[in-house]
Amino acid sequence: TTSSGSGLYWQLLGNAGTTAGTNFIGTTDNQAFEIHVDETGTATEGRRRVMRFEPNAVSANVIGGFNGNNVTGGVVGGVIAGGGASGSTNRVTDDYGVVSGGQNNQAGDGVGATNNNGYATVGGGQNNTALESYSTVGGGYSNTASDGLSTVGGGYNNTASNGYSTVGGGAGNTASGDVSTV
């Protein structure tokens, strides 16, 4: 930081003499910090907020990409790395859920408490949902991992619907038994 009359500031070409953990860009209160780009557009365009950091007592939430992407209130450790669009936002609804990108993807069940179906992950693609604890959808289109520890690698319209079930890919496949694989 550098002094300039009224206080300290960050220079556009960088600063020297900073100390990590002491000097930072951010807030000093319990409020979210946002990075915005091109405030001239409308909120339904891919402009304005491009990154949001939400503090909490356990693990901050990080929300990138489309400005309508969201982490449900009360969630801890949620991450949306990017993607999303108007009408196709990415969502994390349960603790430690991750959506890496794509559009209209959801990690968590979106029902009740935020700590009941944590650690769900959607890698990308479109219209994918990882609903329960430790479930994963790698990508593709309209895939669902709907029970704990279930996985859909990708493809189209696949469902892993029971615990430990896996669909590697393809189209229209369902792994419906515990510990089943397609």
What does this structure look like?
The structure is a single chain. The chain is mostly beta strands. The chain is built from no helices and 18 strands. The protein has strands at residues 2-4, 7-9, 33-37, 48-54, 61-64, 70-71, 79-80, 91-92, 98-99, 106-107, 121-122, 129-130, 136-137, 144-145, 151-152, 159-160, 166-167, 174-175. It has a nine-stranded mixed beta sheet, with no helix packed on it. The protein has a seven-stranded parallel beta sheet with strand order 6-8-10-12-14-16-18, with no helix packed on it.
List the helices and strands and how they pair.
Elements: E1 2-4, E2 7-9, E3 33-37, E4 48-54, E5 61-64, E6 70-71, E7 79-80, E8 91-92, E9 98-99, E10 106-107, E11 121-122, E12 129-130, E13 136-137, E14 144-145, E15 151-152, E16 159-160, E17 166-167, E18 174-175
Parallel strand pairs: 5-7, 6-8, 7-9, 8-10, 9-11, 10-12, 11-13, 12-14, 13-15, 14-16, 15-17, 16-18
Antiparallel strand pairs: 1-2, 3-4, 4-5
**What's the total count of β strands?**
18
In spatial order, strands of the major sheet run 3-4-5-7-9-11-13-15-17
Structural class: mainly beta
The gross shape turns out to be elongated
Catalogue the unreliable spans.
Answer: none
Roughly how much helix do the residues carry, as a percent range? under 10%
Largest sheet: 9 strands, mixed
Order of helices and strands: EEEEEEEEEEEEEEEEEE
Question: How would you concisely characterize the structure shown here?
Answer:
With 182 residues, the chain is mainly beta. The chain has strands spanning 2-4, 7-9, 33-37, 48-54, 61-64, 70-71, 79-80, 91-92, 98-99, 106-107, 121-122, 129-130, 136-137, 144-145, 151-152, 159-160, 166-167, 174-175.
